[in-house]
Design a protein that fits this description.
DUF1272; Herpes Virus-1; globular; about 10% strand; about 15% helix; DUF1272 domain-containing protein; alpha+beta
């Protein structure tokens, strides 16, 4: 199950689970669309491809809430 990290690891932008616009690699490193674009859709941590993260809404979000720990390190 995806952790659904709440922020971009590069700039700290909020990335809520029910909203589109987040990109992840196979290790769930999470970036906003602007940062993913700036990174040429490649994860700077593992070199993997950044793909659109699916959204999680409704009952699925209630049953399996998104992570709350932020990954952005200023």
């Amino acid at each position: 199950m995806l952790a659904m990290h709440p922020d971009c690891q590069r700039c700290g932008a909020d990335l809520p689970a029910p909203a589109p616009g987040a990109f992840i690699c196979s290790f769930e490193c999470t970036f906003c669309a602007e940062c993913a674009d700036a990174l040429d859709e490649r994860c700077p941590n593992c070199g993997g491809e950044l793909m659109d993260r699916p959204t999680r809404t409704g009952k699925a979000l209630v049953t399996h809430p998104a992570a709350t720990a932020r990954k952005f390190a200023s």
